[in-house]
């Protein structure tokens, strides 16, 4: 269950990152920015709720937020690694 909660939280972070105008992972996602921003909220809330139900209040919140923050930190690095050799400053 721990990995499921973390994965759903990472999916929420991916939705939030894809809604950013600076991302280059998936250009077609820029047309659905509002939907992706909206989708990230119920995904994160669902992740926190399922982790809280299984592990308790504070432990569940920490598990879900750890997965969310880990994805938010690593996605820009993945984006930069994917477009290495391209322009670095925008």
| Through-space gap between termini | 40 Å
Major β-sheet, in short?
A: none
| Count of domains | 1
- What is the H/E string? HHH
Number of strands: 0
Q: Please indicate the percent range of residues in DSSP E strands (runs of 2 or more).
A: under 5%
Structural class: mainly alpha
Average pLDDT confidence is 91
How many helices? 3
Structure description:
The chain is 73% helix and 0% strand. It is mainly α. The protein has one domain. The protein is elongated. It comes from Duganella flavida. The chain crosses the membrane at residues 55-78. This is DUF3325 family protein. Keywords: Membrane, Transmembrane, Transmembrane helix.
Question: What key phrases describe this protein's structure?
Answer:
90 residues, 73% helix, mainly alpha, 3 helices
Task: Give a summary of the structure in a few sentences.
The protein has 90 residues and is mainly α. The protein has helices spanning 2-18, 33-55, 57-82.
